[in-house]
Each structure stands twice: as C-alpha cells, then as structure tokens.
C-alpha cells in the first residue's frame, strides 16, 4: 500500500454530485472491477486532500474509495452560518451515500468527520434510518465539539489560518517536517483555503449535539476507534479514552499510536494504514 504521489492533485479524480443542500465535490479512486466501498470524511477545516495518500492506498488495495468535501469545505457548497450542526453534516453524508448508491461502505472519519460518521451510523441526531455500513473507523473522535475549542491543535490551526502564507509555509515545514511531502502540501492547502467563519461555526453549532463518546455504545457495526497522544496534540485525554473504551461494544476495538498527535493518518501514515488493514481483515 505504498505510493509516491507527485502532489495532492495527482491523487484520484474529481467529481460533483447535487444533494438537497447543494453541489458537493468529492474525489474518487475506482478500481477496474466491482469492489467494496470506503467513504473518507475529513475533519473540521479539512478537505478531501487530507486523505490523498490514504485514498490512493485503499484504492490500490482494491477498494472503491470516495473522499467528500463536507459543506463549507473545499469545492462543496458553502451555506451560511447556522447551518453547520451535526444534524446537517450527518444528513449531507447520508444524502451523499444515497445519491451515489454506495452500498454498505466502510466509513472512515477524522475528528469532526468522525463525529458525523458516528452520528450517521447510530441515527443519533437525525430522524433517519441509519444506512447499511460494513464498519467504522473513527480517528481522533472529539469528546464533544465544545471541548475542541480549548485544544492546542485548534488554537494552532486558527492562528495559521490568520497568518501570512510565508509564515504558514515555514510553520508547516518545521512542525510537520517528518510528514510525507503530499501530506504537507495538503495541510498547506487547507490552512490557506479554510473559511475561518465556517471553521468556528462547526465548533459552535456542533457543540449542541452534546457529548459524543456515549454514542459509541450504540454502534451496531464493527468499529475501530483510534487515538493520538494527547501530549502531542491528540484530542482525547486519558479520562476520555477510558470512557470511550468503556462505551464501545464487544464487536468494536480501540487502539492508539503512541507518539502521534491529532493527525494520525498524515503524521503516522504507516501506523495508521497498518491498523486499518488489520481491521479490514477482521471485517472481511
């Protein structure tokens, strides 16, 4: 599952789909034969590009992979403030699966994307029947959106969004110097292109959903919950992690990557993919 992409733009192909909320952009890696599906859901402030290497790796392994730009992100529709609650975002994700007739996908969500995937899978915030899923991978699921506002990784992201391009480039080169060039490039794109108001709206409006970790007890499909090191920017404290593990049903697993921060899939791509491969083997 290794690849040496020249740039983010070399990964996958771009597509658009019209949903009830507007036009959404997504990136796709499609094999030549029918294959199981994986849908990748980025975190707050991200775009499909956060998954450039993950999407290519899963596609090379024989999966039909789709990475969607959530509302307000990337090239997708940008509704006004007041439209970024978990109900709306999870509803978009459900509409996306239905419009593209994605059958029993594996949902992989990072942070806010993980919250949307969890809400969709459990039917927790919308009057909808949850779609059929093959499994969930929840990377750095926040304990609740209100808590994210106090996280150092959020303060850093906001500061970078408000800084000059030159300063941001130097910061990424320094802080993310061990990342693959494609992952550094994707982070730079996000920092330069994210709408600060949308970013803050997702935190403020998402907080109305309340605590997220107890929802893990309602997961009915196999799930892998992943945590980064809280001392390196990971979102979940030791107390949060203990609660998450206690809430998880027996058919789900929890794991962590020591030394990795909030961005497991970019900061420790090899470790992230190893855990996902192992999980996929159990799901299959």
UniProtKB/TrEMBL annotation:
Highest rank taxon of the organism: Bacteria
Does the UniProt entry include the keyword Hydrolase?
A: yes
Q: Which residues form a coiled coil?
A: none
User: Which is one GO molecular function term here?
Assistant: hydrolase activity
The AB hydrolase-1 domain covers which part of the protein?
39-164
User: What organism is this sequence from?
Assistant: Microtetraspora malaysiensis
InterPro entries named in the record: AB_hydrolase_1, AB_hydrolase_fold, AB_hydrolase_sf
Q: Does the keyword RNA-binding apply?
A: no
SUPFAM superfamilies the UniProt entry points to: alpha/beta-Hydrolases
Its protein name is Alpha/beta fold hydrolase
